[in-house]
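Exercise 7. Given the components listed, write out the predicted structure of the assembled complex. Treat all entries as one system.
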Amino acid sequence: MKKQTSIGYFTVLAVLLAIAMSAYWLSAGESKETASNIFLAIVIAGLPLPLWLAQSLPLARGAAKASKANIRLESPEVLATLDKINALAVSKGGIVTEGKPYVAGLVPAGLSQGTLLGLAASAEREAKHPFGQAIYQAAIARQARMQPLSASNEIPGCGMEALINRMPVRVGKAEWLLEEGVDITADLLTRADQIAQRGQSTVFVANGKYCRGIIVLDDNIPKETTDAFTQLQQQGIQIVMLSGDSRRTANAISKQAGIDTARSELTDQGKAREIKLLQTHGCTVAMIGNGVRDEAAMAEADLRIHLGPLPEKTGDAAHDIDLPENSSIVLENNNLSDFLHLSKLSHKVMDIVQQNRIVALLFWLLLLPPAMGLVKTFGGPFLPPAAALTGQLCASLMILFNSLRA
Ligand SMILES: Nc1ncnc2c1ncn2[C@@H]1O[C@H](COP(=O)(O)OP(=O)(O)OP(=O)(O)O)[C@@H](O)[C@H]1O
Ligand SMILES: [Cu+]
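Answer.
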């Protein structure tokens, strides 16, 4: 958008300059015909067509290349922003990790493992959070005995509460259970800390006021993901993980994944604040988020990246590409290394834009002074409009061919 208005400015300037100079030469005794030629030559030489092509051609070329690699861009201008990105914010679940958590251990307190799992799964039956779903699936796989629930309520960022046998059963993070008045023994809290230091997540299960144990959840970190992080860091992009999980778990995972900074125990709004904080520190931030809970943070980021294929088309052809959650970039191959390739492409494209702008500038410097009559003051001719046109075409062609290298 900004580019568009500056193109408009340059056009107005060229016309004003043309009027002023032809009026000047008319008053200096030149014929009307010469004056109108001067007017034409200045307008043609001053038109910002090459300057406009300088950016739009390489960007369009880059966007076409990206599209071939199954990378959808909101607009080609996304590449210009991407060139400036120096921080990448990522969510933990589903971005750093595979996003397929599984129950990796049970730490019951005074009951059997099966009973603990069955109790938690009974509460998690309708859970949306991947942890809840993993617990429910594990209980089915292990044929743990489940009880009917009369009501349940999932509290985002905290856990699940359900009414089972007229008793409130809660499954979630320790801080939340403690707030709800649940007693958690120091021993269990220590166990959870030790588990978290391995990069696993823990959720506590409470029946009424009593904590019945811990469920340990694990989620793999794909090697391709850590490789992509390393290479992005080599390109000068710092990786920041934003997580709702505990500090110990988040720190351990970020260490395993080779991530620079981890921010943990964050709410939706907390994640959004972290993005703003990065920006006030001078960072241009891209974010790869995960689902509805990251929408607030995504909205703050300079670039919003969606990892994974586009949702099925609903059949209305009104929008040719309907990017989810206002994404700027969709990596349809669900591959983080595509972001790396796109980032490299953006640097190449913007280098070419820079060269093109120099070409456009040089031709201006070459054409405008003679068109204005600078050579005439030294006894030479005015620049004929046809020569101005040839010069502009020449600049545009040079820019076109240079842009093909993108
Ligand atoms: N249905 C649930 N069952 C059990 N625990 C839950 C549930 N929903 C949330 N929690 C607890 O709340 C914590 C925070 O959840 P949140 O969705 O904010 O982050 P996360 O999924 O752990 O991490 P990230 O945001 O990095 O992917 C979880 O780590 C978990 O302990
Ligand atoms: Cu920074």
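Discussion: Residues 102-218 form a domain with the Calcium-transporting ATPase, cytoplasmic domain N fold (CATH 3.40.1110.10). The first helix runs from residue 2 to 27.
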